[in-house]
User: What shape does this take?
Amino acid sequence: MILLGCAIIIAFRFMQTYPIVRILFPREVTFPLVQILGIASLLTVLNLAFRGLGLPFATVLSRKLAADWLYRRSRNPMLLSCLFVLIAAALWLQSLHALL
Assistant: This one.
């Protein structure tokens, strides 16, 4: 996951340095959206930790099925919220390539 995160950061920096196509989307809207969705990503991990169901990484694995709160709405809210954070970050950077 660390290598994937580093690759995403490098890709976003490259796309920001050498833009080919820009999306004209107001940054005043997208930056708070990135922050809100980042908090939602954190809440999915905290939901598992505080309910005693485990963590999404190798320290304490889940032994029960999480079926409440965010997990009631989505099969995998961690992945979904991280995907939304990346989409909002691409809109914030106004990069079509990052969005694709």
